Amino acid sequence: MRTRSISALLTCSLLLPQLASAYFPEDVMLPPKAPAIIMMEEPVLLPLPPPLPAVGSVAYTWDSDATIRRSTFVAAIVRRLFRPTERCFPKLSESDYSLLARDVEKDASYGIDLCTAMRAGVMRGLTDGTFRPNALVTRAQAAKALAKAFHLATDTTDPKEFWSDHYVDALIAGGALSADADLDGPITRGELSTMLWAVRAMAKARE
């Protein structure tokens, strides 16, 4: 009897591990736990700013038929022909303002050029004391200014002679101005350019 009991105990001890394994198969057969997956937050994509507008290239176009205002004319002539030391000072005294016309502001961009031209006798204001800076330059006015600037003609001594005849005749003789030109009409940029080159050649030939 005792022997049977011992045999039974041995049999149970051998079978218990197998029974446990058969009873709880998931404890042994489950795969190891996978490592925790760290979820990365996706970056928030901000909308791109709108593209800058394209800057179009602005090409300067020479218009030979364009007319010229008196303020532009006097500035171009003075800055081309006179050295900085020969021009009026940037800050004029009150007495020097008498050389300017009454319709020209003291801080006008061409004011110093007008002062220089008046001192040199190249240009003058009108008889009513104005300069009329926005008025167009006529061919007669351009002829007088260039003839005096390049010393191609002097002021006439004949009181009966028209104010521009002396200068116009000098430029016509040198080929700088056409004999049939409309003297009272506005001069164009193309005509002024041709006139300027011609009077330069005339002045150089006199040297």
Automatic annotation (TrEMBL):
The keyword Transmembrane does not apply. InterPro entries: SLH_dom. The keyword Signal applies. It holds the Pfam family SLH. Residues 97-160 form the SLH domain. Keywords: Signal. Residues 1-22 form the signal peptide. It comes from the Bacteria. This is Putative S-layer protein. It comes from Candidatus Peribacter riflensis.
